[in-house]
């Protein structure tokens, strides 16, 4: 089993990482976590070394880029990494898409996923909690109000609310819940991404991969970077967030964050 952990980010790191600070400027950030996964980090480091050895004439850049996903995918990503095999919208090839612009990443994730009218509960955590003796409806509440962030968060919520009068009553999230208090369906994954040899590509829904002399596809609008090879990216931060008026209506092409790409090495 792959051992990993998801830890809250300390205040100093929130201010030091510019890619996190940008999100505070553009969205209502709920919480920020850091992924510690030695196996994925080792594979990522090994792949970086391979790229440097295989093509010594071109520098391997390491960028921090944004990927937006549904909150139900966060635990799997922290454990197993992003997986191009699950890609369903292939505008620039069948790979994992990243952007330096959080507004762009959020907007196109919204188009892809749309709105949801049902709640996706983490079934594994739900089974564990029910086997521990907690009522199913209470477990639903716990997972809903902790955004499926993990077993420990759910247990804490259950213990904090075990005396609530409606603790075990049937749980149906109201429209008010979805639209205001806890309308959190997506999370930013801020990833370290290895980029060495880029090919510019136009929108092509029939494109699967690019020639193997390239490792990265870039959209002609400059907003999207697509990776096709495993372990050329490492999920470092998870940022749970809500949209507000600024992020809903801002023009993603106004982003001017690309000068902050490079990660200190």
Q: Quick summary of this structure?
A:
This protein is of the alpha+beta class and 265 residues long. It has 10 helices and 9 strands. One of its GO terms (cellular component) is nucleus.
Give a description of the structure.
The chain has 265 residues and is an alpha+beta fold. Helices cover 35% and strands 22% of the residues. The chain is built from ten helices and nine strands. The protein has helices at residues 11-16, 18-26, 38-54, 74-80, 102-113, 123-131, 136-145, 151-161, 175-181, 245-249; strands spanning 5-8, 28-36, 61-70, 96-98, 186-195, 198-201, 216-219, 225-227, 233-242. Helix 7 crosses helix 8. The relative contact order is 0.24.
Furnish the topology, listing elements before pairings.
Blueprint: E1 5-8, H1 11-16, H2 18-26, E2 28-36, H3 38-54, E3 61-70, H4 74-80, E4 96-98, H5 102-113, H6 123-131, H7 136-145, H8 151-161, H9 175-181, E5 186-195, E6 198-201, E7 216-219, E8 225-227, E9 233-242, H10 245-249
What proportion strand? 15-25%
- Please give the order of strands in the largest beta sheet: 1-2-9-5-3
The SS-based structural class is: alpha+beta
* Poorly predicted ranges: 112-118, 175-182
Q: Helical proportion?
A: 25-40%
Separate helix tally = 10
Distance between the termini: 30 Å
Overall average pLDDT: 83
Largest sheet: 5 strands, antiparallel
Number of beta-strand segments: 9
C-alpha Rg (nearest Å): 20 Å
- H-E string: EHHEHEHEHHHHHEEEEEH
What does the overall shape look like? elongated
EC number: 2.4.2.-
Organism: Aphis gossypii (Cotton aphid)
InterPro entries: ARTD-AVP, Poly(ADP-ribose)pol_cat_dom, UBA, UBA-like_sf
GO molecular function, one term: NAD+-protein mono-ADP-ribosyltransferase activity
